[in-house]
Amino acid sequence: MDELNQGQQQVADRVGELLAESPLDNEIKQVLVEGVGQLPKDLLFKLLDVLENEREELEKVAFEVKLFLKEQNNNWEQTAKNQQKAADTIVDIWADKLK
Amino acid sequence: MDIAVAQIFELSYYTTNMAERLTQQERPSTPERSREEVYVETLKLKRDVMSSHYTMNSLRREIDNRIEEMTDEQLNTDPEVAKYKQVSDEYRRRKQSFLESLEGLSAEDKNKLSSLTNLTKLEVELSSFNVLVAEPERTETPASQTSDRPEREITLEEAGRMLQISRDRNHQLETAYWGSKIAELQEKQKAEEEARRKENINRRIKEIENILVEKYRILYQEVSVIDRRSLEEEIKKLEDEKSRLEKELESPEGKVGKSWGDRIRGVFGRRKAEISPVSISAEPEQQTTTTVEQPQAEQEGSKRGTVLGWLAERGKGILSAGVWEVRQAWRFQRGTKFAANDLEALSKLVHVENADEAQGKANEILELMRENNITTVTASEFLNIANQVTYEKAAENNDRIDYMIKNAMDALKDRVAKYRGQATAETVLTPENLKNAEADLRTQLNKFRDGATMKDVESFAKVMRDNMDKKWWLRYVYAPLEASLLGYLGYTSYLLWSRWFGGGDLIPGGEDIALSPEESGQRYLDHNMWEESREHLKELGVENPTNQEIQAVDSAAAQENNIRVVNPENSQTIWPDTAGGQTKDISMVKGLIKWGAAHKAALAIKAARLGIKVATGF
Q1: Which of B100, B174, B305, B529 has most Cβ atoms within 10 angstroms of its Cβ?
Q2: Residues of A in contact with B311 (CB under 8 A)
């Protein structure tokens, strides 16, 4: 079999790398990586599309978790401020009651 | 960018209204719509989804570059973040409309649609139905300056233009990049041309077979011996052409081959070695261990990290809820209620005082899960996740509460002393009054903490809802894998797939997202078993099942249900492998029966059919 040209190497590397990083079940990944040589090339590109799409979805999940964590900080900071205000009000009420 | 968002919302208004109209008015008249109309409608909805997906990703990449440095204030006021949220909401609505429409398609159309893995392919398909292809939504983010499409969808022509621009500007790195991108795209183009060539060969073989059927019929039924020669010659020519085409199909030309396979395996192995496994558990005592790849890269600096690694580290348990963990939920841990020890854990989480209050909160959480369509985890798993999400912050707030109470009590004592003087102050600052004031403070401050805790849980539930919809991952992200690749690689891989992705609906009342009884291992028998088996195969998209295929499913169901298949006339066992059964199939009554083995057999048949279909084009 001929050596792979530059474009072919790139595609092969990308598929191998994305498949290794994919959260797919290990057994399924193993079946894919072992059988990849038998696939028609258009299916290989389909696999690449699936893996790229999966990566984008995962990046979206990670991003939205980051956004959540940032907003969570805001939420708790605001809660602490509200608690302080509430504590001040309760002190006022008790001070009035006991004076 | 404002124009882009305006365009998105104009389109979104159209899509949302269209979806509403579909729901309210068009649904009842669905039977009147042709198969083609439903297919084109679903194609358009998929295009809308992809289009807003790309817009959302451009915004995401732009924000992601600076999110770590953003202050709280900046996060709240950042216009790009606000736009991202709007686009993200729109994306979710479009996803739902698309998934609903997908349900109405035949198995064949679903497969066809799933093979359209990018916007270009979708637009080509749409244009074949004379549908006007809309202009893509424009974004002005730096990442997409080269094109409105994501980089992986850039066409050869666009890449050629970029190469020329890079050369003109004498940018060596960019020139090298676009050069290699072009090489990659040329490979893809060659592969697609080869696939089309094989499809044409298959079509021609089918044509020849049809012609031959007719020619042979004429030859044997209508033509006299004298006139046979010319017809026989014609048939021979057709047979020769058919056999030449079949040989051409068998050639390794167009297959990935050994060199590719070796290279892919090599990179796969190396990358796997770079990322070492790490265990994630929802709760230390209750191990639901999940193996995910965790990058050592971050420490060593020499290896790149993975998104999955980041999620494992910072994802707050989202991995336990992730689609790839459906297997965990699938191990029959169908907890749809909170158990007593869960309620105890819940009491600790939201600091409730009694069982009624804990039950109330439990109901609230179940409702939250239901509203957010969280179906991949059990209630108690969700509680574990909620705990991870909010525990640290709630504990930190507890310390603050203690500190605030101490300061508040000191302030109260000072103020009373100031009013009354130290001596008389002590007459009212009795231990009982002080205890009551402190209790009052603690109750009020705890309420704020519990409110914030529930807000955390709710916000995280939304993140899960938007990202962990099993239907979405199965029917959109992984659909092409299921429809073609795994079928091509044989039914063993297909079964692995089916098993991995076979998680059930774990939330009570989630009928709209419930799996079919077959997927949960049961089927309602309202015909005889033979008819049920035939129907089940058809439902899975196995057209015209053969008797042998029906028997395989029927036999699996019979064995699983301890049923003996007999000849009704003489009660003799027909199928030896069912001889051990207690009930005769002829005495079966309507009702639910076990269908797990039958479903598995039917899936194997479907997988084998898919494999043949992909290999031969039919």
Answers
A1: B529
A2: 58, 61-62, 65
Structure tokens at B581: 């059964």
- Would the pLDDT of B24 be above 60? no
Which is higher by pLDDT, B520 or B292? B520
Decide if B195 and A11 are in contact by the 8 Å CB cutoff: no
Instruction: Determine the pLDDT at residue B454.
Output: 84
Sign of the dihedral defined by the CA atoms of residues A34, A40, A41, A43, in that order: negative
Does this model's pTM top 0.80? My answer is no
Crossing angle of the two packed helices B340-350 and B379-428, in degrees rounded to 10: 50
CB contact under 8 A, B263 and A62: no
Using a CB-CB distance cutoff of 8 angstroms, which residues of chain A are in contact with residue B314?
A: 65-66, 69
The shortest CB-CB distance from A44 to any of B150, B191, B448 is to: B191
Triad B327, B333, B338: Cα angle to 5°:
130
- Pick the residue from chain A with its C-alpha nearest to B71: A70
CA A83 to chain centre: 34
CA A18 from centre of chain: 14
Residue B180 near residue A5 (C-beta atoms within 8 A): no
Residue pair B597/B557 in contact (Cβ under 8 Å)? The answer is yes
Mutation target to probe the A interface, by most A beta carbons within 10 A, among B263, B428, B475 is B263
Other beta carbons within 10 Å of B131: 14
Q: What is the pLDDT of residue B601?
A: 80
Of A16-20, B195-199, B304-308, B501-505, the least confident: B501-505
Q: What is the rounded CA–CA span in Å between residue A49 and residue B119?
A: 11
Provide the 3-class DSSP secondary structure of residue B92. Answer: helix
Residue A24: per-residue pLDDT: 78
Q: Note the Cα B474 to chain centre separation in Å.
A: 4
Nearest to A33 among B76, B81, B264 (CB): B264
Chain B residue with minimal CA distance to A18?
Answer: B268
Q: Residues, chain A, total? A: 99
Distance of CA B588 to the CA centre of its chain: 38
Using a CB-CB distance cutoff of 8 angstroms, which residues of chain A are in contact with residue B393? 72, 76
Please give the mean pLDDT across all residues of chain B.
73
Percent of chain B with pLDDT over 70: 65
Alpha-carbon torsion, ordered B233, B236, B238, B241, to 10 deg:
-130
Which residues in chain A have their CB less than 8 angstroms from residue B405's CB?
A: 87
Sign of CA dihedral B214, B219, B221, B223: positive
Report domain extents, chain A: 6-98
The Cα B119–Cα B97 span in angstroms is 18
Q: Which residues of A touch B270 (CB under 8 A)?
A: 16, 20
Search chain A and give the residue with CA nearest B263.
Answer: A12
The whole-angstrom distance between A28's CA and the closest CA on chain B is 7
Q: Report CA A20 to chain centroid distance, whole Å.
A: 16
Interface-testing mutation among A3, A17, A92, with chain B (most B C-beta atoms within 10 A): A17
Q: Which of A38, A59, A45 is nearest to A8 (CA)?
A: A45
Query: Is B260 strand, coil or helix?
Result: helix
Q: Quick check: B185 and B154 in contact, CB under 8 A?
A: yes
Report chain B residues whose CB lies below 8 A from the CB of A74.
72, 75-76
Residue B472 amino acid letter: W
State the ipTM, two decimals: 0.88
Q: In whole angstroms, what is the distance from residue B381 CA to residue B520 CA?
A: 20
Nearest to B614 by CA among B257, B115, B187, B189: B115
